[in-house]
Write a structure and sequence with these properties.
The protein has about 200 residues and is an alpha+beta fold. Helices cover about 40% and strands about 10% of the residues. It has helices at about 10-15, 50-65, 65-80, 85-95, 95-105, 110-115, 150-155, 190-200; strands spanning about 120-125, 125, 140-145, 165-170, 175. Helix 5 crosses helix 6 (about 110-115).
């Protein structure tokens, strides 16, 4: 399991973007890189390699996955027909922990991972305890009856993002996977092409 034990906002400030899957906090008040020089520190010109690396790190930290997990997903996306970057986004968005977060049943992806790992989540009426489980079209994700209050508290807090490919019943609560996502559903600025290039050069 990939865990970030340090300050999450610090990571977002270093990358220069907000990552909603990682934290609900904002970098609006301090939109500059962390460090002793504070706002006076200027961002250096970034090399092509640095740009590709930054995009990769944005993806890794938002979806809370390890380097080896991301590498395997890129390899899986490469084997599929169609645009590799789009297929990579689809694979990431279809992860069960991300689906729970996008639907608002958890405030962040780490919180969603905890829900899944503790046995609170069912897919098609069967318990699933793997956050990396990939949902498919027609799947119904539900919460164990004894755990409904946990999900309802997250929904009441306003968690979640606009996700047309998921049909959410907030009363039950359940999530219906109506279709598959593409790169337009990524909730932050990202260039999947650069990530694919980063790994293609390393392979």
């Amino acid at each position: 399991m990939a865990r970030l034990r340090g300050p999450r906002v610090k990571v977002m400030r270093a990358l220069g973007t907000e990552l909603p899957g990682l934290s609900r906090k904002s970098i609006e008040k301090r939109p500059y890189p962390p460090g002793e020089h504070g706002p006076k520190r200027r961002r250096r010109n970034v090399s092509d390699y640095g740009l590709r690396l930054r995009e990769k790190q944005k993806m890794r930290f938002n979806y809370c996955i390890s380097e080896s997990q991301l590498r395997r997903l890129v390899e899986a996306a490469t084997r599929r027909k169609g645009n590799t970057g789009v297929k990579l986004i689809e694979l990431l968005e279809r992860r069960l922990d991300n689906v729970l977060f996008r639907a608002g049943l958890a405030r962040t992806i780490p919180a969603a991972r905890q829900l899944v790992g503790h046995g609170h989540i069912f897919v098609n009426a069967r318990k699933v305890d793997r956050p990396s489980f990939s949902v498919t079209r027609g799947d119904v994700v539900s919460v164990r009856p004894a755990s409904r209050d946990i999900a309802l508290r997250a929904l009441e807090s306003g968690a979640g993002l606009d996700t047309p490919w998921l049909v959410i019943d907030k009363e039950a609560p359940t999530i219906n996977v109506a279709s598959y996502p593409d790169e337009s559903f990524v909730p932050f600025d990202l260039e999947p092409r650069l990530i694919v290039e980063h790994y293609s050069r390393a392979m």
